[in-house]
Write a structure and sequence with these properties.
Radius of gyration: 24 Å
Distance between the termini: 24 Å
Number of domains: 2
CATH class of the largest domain: Alpha Beta
Mean pLDDT: 90
Strand order of the largest sheet: 16-15-14-13-7-12-11-8-17
Helix content: 25-40%
Low-confidence stretches: 1-23
Length: 519
């Protein structure tokens, strides 16, 4: 097992090394919503960590934009506090922090005001001479989605989306949600596509930047023991779980417009499913990988009728209860939530990928808030042996082999198998072989946002979503959302805070003779 760990680790480290060795040319990053929550919690700390690890190019510059009126120094003070809040103290070197902050600037104004963009043009031109030595630029749209079209159209109107000259480029990073339904996703893609070429567009899903998610392809395609078994002949079913112990955390108004299916399943979890199910890409590059992911989504079985939706999907809301001896209110009592709301905080469902590799293999997905603990995991359940020679001693109670990939909080991979328990009888017990990132590698794990932003700097779109995948994912889930809306249900099932969801979710698997993995 130690050798297997080393092989998995060496190959995966090699994939990362190839990318980090490709030093990007310098550029300016313009962050729209540059003083917002996401910028302070994720973007700026990720950029500081990249600089600390000597991954950012020389002269790299950040211009934050927003509706507030701030001087450059005030903005640097705000970001200094953000770094102190979201970067571990042992990683903060004061001289390096001062150097990083010196490359931060702020421009205030309304996003639909031409004056804002004229100021940005002047600053970018100045920095192309004084700091970066080039006209390269990344626009990071860290704003509410309703503002995306406004910004994109203004960039086009001021001729900021394209740049001429060899090796010069403009790119745009777009945060999810990419629409709230199929039509709005198509409309957003049309607006973006009228201004930017698809190769310039980086739709970010931070889930895809997590090490264990990236390791799915390394595990499958770099190890001869797994891929031959990775099909309907050997795999019984797959479980994908994303559990949160927190509730809506004061964001009831936002969540009312979203729900668990839109917020988690349509994007994060379907993307994980595609990595589990995709065919081997011809090469490890953006288009080859994303082509195969799109093929998986197109092969997934849609559910159109109310009977199909009801028999394959469960929705529910958390009720009052306790987690770790702390009492919490139910979803309907949260601020900003209608007392008659039918917005789901939990969803469980069963998908099928109707192709040669996966025919009749169910993919079970569940996600929810106010569950017992925070954990994100993929579990691959293998079929039982065709003949159990130990039946006389063990009856039929031999657990199946399970390969688990824990995405968070402890990034790891484990394999459960059967072994003889010491003694005079043939008594079998389940044991496991485990690989943990923190134990196997001494290097500092790269946070998802840092990895993805650095990939954008290098022009590597492998871990970003392409237009077709976004639209096919919405096409897949829209019948479920439409059926739920059409049902006009007065209420939906509930589950007590601190439990693993409603009884209906357990029944979904029990009907197939299966049960959710105990976490």
């Amino acid at each position: 097992m130690a050798e297997a760990k080393k092989q998995i680790g060496d190959v995966h480290a090699g994939l990362r090394e190839v990318k980090t060795e490709q030093r990007a040319g310098s550029c300016t990053m313009v962050v729209f919503g540059g003083a917002g929550d996401l910028t302070r919690r994720k973007i700026i700390p990720a950029l500081f960590n990249a600089m600390r690890q000597d991954l950012t190019p020389h002269g790299f510059t950040v211009i934050g934009t927003g509706r507030g009126d701030m001087s450059h120094d005030q903005y640097r003070d705000l970001m200094r506090e953000a770094i102190r809040s979201f970067v571990p103290p042992q990683h903060i070197d004061e001289p390096m922090l001062r150097e990083f902050l010196s490359g931060l600037y702020f421009v205030g104004g309304e996003f639909d005001d031409p004056a804002l963009y004229k100021t940005l043009i002047n600053l970018m031109h100045r920095f192309s001479t004084e700091r970066t030595g080039c006209n390269n630029c990344i626009y990071y749209l860290s704003t509410p989605p309703s503002i995306f079209p406004v910004i994109v159209k203004q960039l086009a109107a001021h001729d900021m989306a394209r740049v001429t000259g060899p090796d010069h480029w403009r790119r745009v990073i777009i945060e999810k949600p990419f629409g709230r339904d199929l039509e709005s996703a198509k409309q957003l893609n049309r607006v973006i596509g009228d201004v930017f070429e698809e190769w310039q567009v980086y739709r970010i899903d931070h889930y895809l930047g997590k090490e264990t998610v990236q390791n799915i392809m390394a595990l499958r395609f770099a190890n001869g023991i797994f891929e031959p078994l990775w099909n309907r002949n050997y795999i019984d079913h797959v479980q994908i779980t994303s559990a949160e112990s927190i509730g809506v955390e004061g964001r009831g108004g936002y969540y009312e417009e979203s729900g668990a299916l839109r917020d988690m399943l349509q994007n994060h979890l379907l993307q994980v499913l595609t990595l589990i199910a995709l065919e081997p890409p011809s090469t490890f590059d953006a288009n080859a990988v994303r082509d195969e992911k799109s093929k998986v989504l197109r092969a997934m079985r849609p559910y159109h009728t109310s009977e199909e939706v009801d028999s394959h999907f469960i929705r529910a809301q958390y009720a009052a209860g306790s987690v770790e001896n702390e009492q919490f209110i139910g979803y309907l009592e949260e601020d900003g939530v209608s007392p008659t709301s039918t917005t789901e905080t939990y969803v469980a469902g069963k998908f099928f990928v109707d192709n040669w590799r996966w025919a009749d293999v169910p993919f079970y997905i569940r996600t929810g808030k106010r569950l017992p603990k925070r954990i994100n995991e993929v579990a691959i359940y293998f079929k039982r042996t065709p003949h159990l020679m130990f039946r006389r001693m063990m009856d039929d109670h031999v657990a199946p082999n399970v390969l688990t990939l824990q995405i968070q909080p402890n990034e790891s991979i484990g394999m459960r198998f059967e072994a003889k328990y010491p003694g005079t009888q043939m008594d079998l017990r389940s044991v496991s072989m485990d690989f943990h990132y923190q134990e196997a590698f001494t290097v500092e794990t790269v946070e998802a946002y840092q990895r993805l932003i650095m990939d954008c700097l290098r022009g590597d779109a492998t871990l970003f979503l392409r237009r077709d995948a976004v639209e096919v994912a919405w096409w897949l889930v829209m019948p479920i959302l439409d059926q739920w809306e059409a049902s006009q249900a007065k209420q939906i099932p509930s589950y007590a805070t601190g439990t693993w969801g409603p009884a209906e979710a357990d029944a979904l698997l029990a009907r197939d003779g299966r049960q959710w993995r105990h976490l």
